Amino acid sequence: MNIAKTYAPKETEEKWYSYWMKHDFFKSVPDEREPYTIVIPPPNVTGVLHMGHMLNNTIQDVLIRRARMKGKNACWVPGTDHASIATEAKVVAMLKERGITKKDIGREAYMKYAWEWKEKYGGIILEQLKKLGASCDWDRTRFTMEDDLSDAVIDTFIHLYKKGQIYRGIRMVNWDPQGKTGISDEEVIRKEVNQKLYYIRYRLSGDEYQVSSSEYQESGDGKDLILDTSDSILTNYLTIATTRPETIMADAAICINPNDARYFHLHGKKVLIPLINREIPVILDEYVTMDFGTGCLKVTPAHDLNDYELGLKHNLPVIDILNDDGTLNEKAQILVGEDRFAARKKIAVLLEADGYLEKVEDYKSQIGFSERTDAVIEPKLSMQWFCNMQEMAKPALDYVLKGDIKLIPEKFGNTYRYWMENIKDWCISRQLWWGQQIPAWYLPDGQFVIAKTREEAFEQAKDLKSQISDLKSEDLVQDEDVLDTWFSSWLWPISVFDGFKDPNNADINYYYPTNDLVTAPEILFLWVARMIMAGHEFRGEIPFKNVYLTGIVRDKLGRKMSKSLGNSPDPLALMEKFGADGVRVGMLLCSPAGNDLMFDESYCEQGRNFANKIWNAFKLVNGWEVDDKLKNNNQVAIEWFESRFNQALAEIEDDFGQYRLSEALMATYKLIWDDFCAWYLEMVKPGYINGEPQPIDRETYQCTISFFENILKILHPFMPFITEELWHEDLFGKRAEYDCCIIAQLPDSGKINTRLLAEVEAVKQVITQIRNIRNSKQISPKETLSLSVKANSKISYKDYELIIAKSANISTLDIVFDKIIGAAGFMVSTDEFYVPLNENLDPIAETARLQKEKEYLTGFLKGVNSKLENERFMSNAKPGIIEVELKKKADAEAKLKILNENLSALAG
Predict the structure, then answer these.
(1) Nearest-CA neighbor of 473 among 453, 455, 447?
(2) Tens-digit pLDDT profile for residues 54-101
(3) SS in 3 state form for 369-386?
(4) Residue 878: its pLDDT value, please?
(5) Which of 21, 41, 331, 446 is the most exposed place for a label (fewest CB within 10 A)?
């Protein structure tokens, strides 16, 4: 019967997680039950637990635990992603500390170091998830670069290449100078940044050219147009505006709109690039917006996607002046070796010194950043591998539009549709070593074959029409690049069940398609859409049925959590302070699907307080003594809570059905804190006589234990540790070894007595009002009071006399038919209540109180009438809602009538 005074989360968490693991409660194998499957969004092997992981994995664990308790075969597959860019950065840094570079040791030796790093640090985040209570089937842990999963990636590449959907070509790509690799459009994060707009003068080539501001030029349609030179004399230069002065050395032309009258005199002319004096043409194209900037556009095909397209159209040279690391190369002629941003500052100084810099303005614009390294993206022409996505996008879009896959919340459907209808080819090659090496094999003459092994490649190469007569296997050189990390993770729901290795194995046939995917909206296209495409391409079906999209975890000021801001708490420290259950509750209390979570540590404190409340409630019940001779006087309270529990259970089921997990938790929270602890236990708990606790009757005791047990069940998915701890207390009887809350069957919702629920709500208001009178009159809770009721409704308050008497310390409850002058009064709905006091009622104060209540009701009634008089509301509202509003109107009018009678009595 003894239980610790306070709840100790740390000891409890360690004890029960070990117990669950030892008894294989997380383990899943195919059987006759209905499967429920979640595959974890694999965190990077470089990762450590952050608040986004906490939210995402708490939601997944709630769903998987609930499915387990509904009798389903719940399987949550964990794993990690090899994260090419992030991991390579870590390994390179590790080697640098040892005085080693990648190039010095070569690929084979480098990969050994990379695997060494992965084995040492790659599993940290999964171990941290266990602290949260994540009930994954850890025996199923997968890694995107393990042999079988890598084989699936290579096989996929070969399959799509043979279909003609993968090709190689020179394209303008998003180049990450820090990661030294190309990345896809979806891995580029656009941010608004403060920049400078530099106005730079380009001198006309040849003789000085002048024109008076009063000169006319003839347009193409024969009309004379005055040359607009802003009331100045054009001398021998034109001005362009750019945010990137460091790239002027790569300029191939200056472009103007052929209809721009200001620049008719420049048609067919050439200009000189400042500082290096290289001559470039002035070209004409309607692409240029006349009213933006100066109307003159520098065209730099090597360093801007739009300029590249313009360059192709006008057959301009492509001059790439940047190295892979973002420094200037020899083609720049000046500032060679300088970083691009350092060069920007220095070239501005040089331009100003030589008179080329006209002015500098502040300017805001959107800039692309690498999702992985946060480096500013550099548009760069590069030979890369691409995957054509058009063919795969259509069925993936149809699955969502037809409702086969549901996005939660639905608002993301439009975003998904836009992306899929405007899909671009996917750049799938990365200039890295850590990852799946592209299975392209090059012959000495530049031709290539696609094959899984060198032997297969050699056989294919022999069939090519090559001028190399004595070709040997060792002459073939495999492509240095690896595949995009997402090219492995888009196969995740299939590959974790070995669906490529053995397409008809027991696991893939049983667990696939999976049920729910929980992930972040920012990877809806990067990952989710691509998994849907892969599911259709390789299995001919959807990979999952529902996609729950979480919001971004922000601080209480609405800022995104980041290391630089110092506003991201350590999840492990939070769990140490508030317990895992407390943090889980804190995360979920404020996280509706798809909306950002404004996190504050106080939510975790609220979660910890909730755990303490449950613990203390258990201690109260655990301390009761039972007297089998006692009669049950608590039948009304028992029937009420049973109905209230069933009502809450129906609400919770509905919330889960619509993936409103935050609302489901809040409904559970209120049921336990308010209805069970604050009301039910107060209604039924035995009192004291002469300071001695009294016993309780057997029936109430057993019903209370049963209620508590069911409460633990519905609470377990949210708070697994404290519920499992209390589940095994002696109060509930001796448990068998496998009789655990984690696999207990969730209760089904029973009958709901709506009349009883409504009447008890009225009784609760009566009790609250009496307590308010005590507080306002400073009457001790121990002093008994009498209560008189003038009932105008159908509620029989005598049926609730024991509850009112016990909860409000009322000695008598009398039914009266007239108002009691001089007593403290209040109303609940249309019923009038009077508490006689041993003092004279202050008529002035009572009049003021009633007048204040009258003003409130008058305003309330005005609002209700406004709704009912609104034609739009009346035509669109459901009948049930209109009925509620009509009842509000009737109740308010009845109350106002009684208030006016009471005010008249006081005035008389």
Answers:
(1) 455
(2) 999 999 999 999 999 999 999 999 999 999 988 998 999 899 999 999
(3) EECCCCCECEEEEEEEEE
(4) 80
(5) 446
pLDDT recorded at residue 222: 31
Q: Which residues contact 239 (CB under 8 A, 6 or more apart)?
A: 199, 200, 201, 202, 294, 296, 358
- The residues pairing with 674 across neighbouring beta strands, listed in sequence order, are none
Whether pLDDT at 224 is above 50: no
Query: Which amino acid is present at 570?
Result: D
781-826 pLDDT, tens per residue?
A: 989 999 999 999 999 999 999 999 999 999 999 999 988 887 888 9
DSSP string, 823-882: SEEEEETTEEEEE--SS---HHHHHHHHHHHHHHHHHHHHHHHHHHT-HHHHHHS-HHHH
pLDDT at 208 over 80: no
Measure the CA–CA gap between 504 and 538, rounded to whole angstroms.
12
- The answer to whether the beta carbons of residues 110 and 433 sit under 8 Å apart is yes
For residue 858, CA distances in Å to 182, 854, 866, 898 come to 68, 6, 12, 13
| 526: DSSP letter | I
738 burial type by CB count under 10 A (0-12 exposed, 13-18 middle, 19+ buried): exposed
**Mean pLDDT across 387-414:** 96
Mean pLDDT of the chain: 91
pLDDT of res. 133: 97
Pick from 188-202, 227-241, 327-341, 342-356: least confident = 227-241
Q: Residues 731, 705: contact at Cβ < 8 Å? A: yes
CA distance 57 to 394: 31
In which element (H, E) is residue 649 found? helix 635-657
- Report how far residue 340's alpha carbon sits from residue 325's, in angstroms, rounded to the nearest whole number: 9
The CA distance from 513 to 541, in Å, is 8
Give 722's DSSP letter: H
648 CB-near residues (< 8 Å, 6+ apart): 667, 668, 670, 671, 675
**16 near 133, Cβ under 8 Å?**
no
At 891, which helix (H) or strand (E)? helix 879-907
Please state, in angstroms and rounded to a whole number, the distance separating the CA atoms of residues 863 and 282.
69
Rg (CA), the chain: 37
Residue position matching structure tokens 């620049």: 263
Q: Residue 819 is encoded by which pair of tokens? A: 């108002």
Inter-axis angle of helices 635-657 and 661-670, nearest 10: 170
Among residues of the chain, what percentage have pLDDT more than 70? 95
| pTM exceeding 0.85 | no
Q: Three-state DSSP class for 271?
A: strand
What is the average per-residue pLDDT within 289-302?
91
Which pLDDT score is estimated for 908? 61
- The residue type at 699: E
DSSP string of 738-778, one letter each residue: T--GGGPPPPPP----HHHHHHHHHHHHHHHHHHHHHHHHT
Helix or strand holding residue 586 (H, E): helix 580-589
pLDDT for residue 769: 94
Q: How many helices (H) and strands (E) does the chain have?
A: 28, 35
Q: How far apart are CA 14 and CA 724, in angstroms?
A: 12
Q: How far apart are CA 583 and CA 586, in angstroms?
A: 5
**Residue 543: band (very low, low, confident or very high) from pLDDT cuts 50, 70, 90:** very high
Asked if residue 337 lies in contact with residue 328, where contact means CB atoms within 8 angstroms, the answer is yes
**Backbone φ, ψ for residue 265 (5° rounding):** -70, -10
Question: If DSSP codes are grouped into helix, strand and coil, which group holds residue 148?
Answer: helix
Residues 545, 399: Cα–Cα separation, whole Å: 10
Query: What pLDDT was estimated at residue 214?
Result: 33
Tell me, what's the pLDDT at 223?
Answer: 31
Put the strands of the sheet holding 544-549 in their side by side order: 406-408, 544-549, 514-519
